[in-house]
Design goal:
By secondary structure, this protein is an alpha+beta fold. The chain has seven helices and 22 strands. It is globular and about 75 Å long.
């Protein structure tokens, strides 16, 4: 990912490291889908084992002091990194860095090198509000939006015209006077309503023999809340035992989940992520992709079949199959009986299928011409599959009931589910 030397250079540039201090790379892991989280400890003398790292749903800001936080742009993957004193708990720092990555992704609509460079001022302002003198301060996106306006086209035009690039508000957010730091003191809505979305991504690996090697779900419970006052909600699942690696929003009380596996919380106002989870060792995939490649005499014949494997009763939409042509392929001629096939200049082939018709199974076939001197194909491509299924959570997770407290009347509540492909790879 990143070498210790390069990260030391980043922190040295901002005055985070002294020459006599030794730096140890403790952890370099992917916590979110496309953001690297790196924790650097400033230690002197002998290095001892830190033991097992345990994540908590929330942290006490008094138990954590960060020396330097940096967001490093990279063509491969952005990295959110921090230098901390060895006296403090590593688990608290990891949770804080995950919060930083989530807030930046929420503000910028993603997190990559171009977005970080184009919105450098906002990234700097967010870091300045999220950490004060080394201690975490404000990490709730809804409160930060009241302090720092998200980037948009109008603000960018005004900053060019007026020369003022600051998006910081002149007034304190409404949550300043609230006993709940993620919710304003007196929230009022004419229509009380709350919506819950189960959004899941399926990660799967299927080997060249068509055997499912790995299949798991990464899911999120996303909530859009428009409730007046200070409501208290309790959400229970019909089968919470299937959940692994759960991670909660700070509003969730941890003891009810630990004892009864129910979510008790006072929700922030607006859209937020209540929790994330994994469901491991699934045994079925919704669709099959069967590639066949045979090569001889400088050419390779390719055939790819796609169909429904396990019918969930819901329509599978937005099906795509993408793969990288091997470097030894000089040219390719591919056609399909359904959908469109595009071959780009970087030798990426994309087959857009959409929905699978009822009268036939989509298939793609064609010929790959190898470079001069190559008789057979020795490197076989891996096929990345994309799909989307509305109205079903393939993990099997089901919401049992939702209870309300501190509300004069029952609000309207809605539930939806969506499953889409994550890293769904088929080897040939």
């Amino acid at each position: 990912m990143f070498s210790v030397i390069s990260l030391m250079g980043v922190f040295a540039d901002v005055g985070g490291l002294a020459e006599e201090e030794e730096v140890l790379l403790l952890e370099a892991a992917i916590f979110s889908r496309n953001v690297g989280i790196v924790c650097l400890a400033m230690v002197t003398g002998d290095v001892k084992s830190f033991g097992e790292v345990v994540e908590f749903p929330a942290f006490d800001a008094k138990l954590l002091k960060v020396e330097v936080v940096a967001v490093v742009a990279s063509e491969v993957r952005p990295v959110v990194a921090a230098v901390w004193r060895r006296d403090w708990r590593l688990s608290h720092l990891k949770i804080f860095l995950c919060r930083v990555a989530d807030v930046l992704s929420d503000y910028l609509g993603g997190l990559n090198e171009d977005l970080i460079k184009d919105n450098f001022v906002i990234v700097y302002q967010l870091l300045d509000e999220m950490i004060d003198n080394g201690f975490p301060l404000t990490t709730e996106p809804n409160i930060l939006r009241e302090m720092i306006a998200p980037p948009n086209l109008v603000s960018k035009v005004l900053s060019v015209v007026t020369g003022n690039s600051s998006n910081v508000s002149n007034t304190l957010p409404g949550a300043t006077g609230s006993c709940v730091p993620w919710r304003t003191a007196a929230t009022k809505h004419s229509n009380n309503e709350v919506y819950f979305d189960l959004v899941e991504e399926m990660d799967a690996i299927i080997n060249s023999n068509g055997i499912l090697v790995k299949c798991e779900i990464y899911g999120e419970v996303q909530v859009n809340s428009y409730l007046s006052g200070l409501p208290d909600l309790t959400l229970t699942f019909a089968n919470p035992s299937i959940l692994n690696d759960v991670r909660f929003h700070p509003c969730v009380r941890f003891r009810p989940w630990e004892s009864h596996q129910m979510l008790s919380f006072v929700p922030p106002d607006g859209l937020f992520k209540l929790m994330s989870y994994r469901v491991k060792k699934l045994k079925n995939a919704p669709i099959y992709v069967k590639p066949q490649l045979t090569s001889d005499a400088g050419t390779c014949r390719i055939t790819v079949l796609v169909g429904i494997k396990n019918d969930s009763g819901k329509t599978i939409d937005s099906i795509t199959v993408q793969f990288q042509l091997p470097p030894c392929v000089a040219s390719a001629n591919l056609t399909s009986n359904h959908g469109t096939v595009n071959i780009f200049t970087d030798k990426t082939c994309s087959w857009s299928i959409g929905r699978i018709p009822k009268d036939r199974s989509p298939s793609m076939s064609g010929t790959l011409v190898l470079e001069t001197g190559m008789e057979r194909l020795h490197v076989f491509p891996t096929f990345q599959v994309g799909f989307k299924i509305m109205g079903v959570a393939l993990s099997g997770l089901q919401i049992d009931k939702l209870d309300f407290k501190n509300l004069p009347k029952l609000p309207y509540k809605g539930f939806r589910a969506l499953t889409r492909a994550g890293h769904y790879d088929v080897r040939s």
